[in-house]
Amino acid sequence: MVFDIIAIAGLLVFWASLLWLPLTLVRAIRNDGTARRWSLLSFLAFGVVLVGFTRAMTQAGTGEALFWSASWAAPLALALAARADPMAVFRRDDKWVGIVVVVTFLFALPFLPAFLHMISDAIW
Fold this sequence. Notes:
124 residues
């Protein structure tokens, strides 16, 4: 039961991180200073967690997979840290991305495990 809750929460944070990627990329390109650094770190963290999560799905045990599920919070936290800079572009768009995440998650939930398995099979 607890593992299922962590897995679903991990899928939710993955979905949020995935939908935040375009805004993060725009901020990495158009911002200067701190907001650019946080955005670039968020973009890179997404890649690291994706590789670690997909490897854990195919080659690791439950404990490591749960750790990587919780790690999806890192790219999201870094993307939101980029928003904290007063000079960040599209500061008001974060709430709209959040609304889109909440609204679309229930529709995407049945497809996310298969999607992640497909990515995992392609990488590993």
